[in-house]
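Quick review question:
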């Protein structure tokens, strides 16, 4: 019986392969190409280092900002609390002043003998005499009563004048007058009296009375 032999895996030497890939192993390679590749690798390493430094710097700045943010918040909160305390103190002071408005600067007590008389300053003030003022309603009532009294006086004067004239006429004629003649005589006398100043005054008073009655009637209608 034949024995089968399995092939063993070959060991690969990476250092040998790397040495085989060296530029000087390539017959077509040039020294400039090798130097250029080394420079590109150095630039790549430098760029990577710059990126790493930038990332670390950014992380440092962010950490500092995060550490400084609580301090700023605490300072703002402290300022707000201080402002609230000031407002509360001002409100309490104002409330105490409103509750006791009579409180004011204390006046020192003085003896009457220590008080000196102060001469009056400024122009002299004229003394005003007391007068009783009558309201509009009282004055209107007084005017109505005065007009009524004037009308009654005028009628009485006219009647007396008519009687006096009639008696004088009877004495002068020494005769007898009938009723019609006496009525005509009295009418003439009253007409003459009414045409003078007394008549004008009576007419004015009558007109006032008529206007007043008309105004009362209109006011009563408005109230109804």
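Suggested answer, residue by residue:
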């Amino acid at each position: 019986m034949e024995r089968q032999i399995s092939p063993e895996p070959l060991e690969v030497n990476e250092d040998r392969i790397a040495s085989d890939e060296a530029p000087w192993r390539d017959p077509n390679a040039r020294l400039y190409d090798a130097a250029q590749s080394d420079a590109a690798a150095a630039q790549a390493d430098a760029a990577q280092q710059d990126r790493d430094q930038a990332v670390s710097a950014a992380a440092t700045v962010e950490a500092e900002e995060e550490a400084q943010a609580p301090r700023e918040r605490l300072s703002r909160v402290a300022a707000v609390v201080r402002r609230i305390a000031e407002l509360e103190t001002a409100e309490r002071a104002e409330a105490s002043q409103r509750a006791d408005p009579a409180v004011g600067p204390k006046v020192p007590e003085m003896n009457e003998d220590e008080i000196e008389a102060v001469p009056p300053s400024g122009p002299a003030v004229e003394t005003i005499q007391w007068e009783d003022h009558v309201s509009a309603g009282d004055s209107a009532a007084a005017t109505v009563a005065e007009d009524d009294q004037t009308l009654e006086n005028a009628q009485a004067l006219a009647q007396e004048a008519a009687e006096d004239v009639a008696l004088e006429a009877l004495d002068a004629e020494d005769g007898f007058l009938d009723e019609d003649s006496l009525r005509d005589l009295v009418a003439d006398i009253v007409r003459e009296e009414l045409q003078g100043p007394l008549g004008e005054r009576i007419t004015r008073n009558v007109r006032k009375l008529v206007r007043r009655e008309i105004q009362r009637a209109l006011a009563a209608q408005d109230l109804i």
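Why it works: The chain has a mean pLDDT of 68. The first helix runs from residue 14 to 20.
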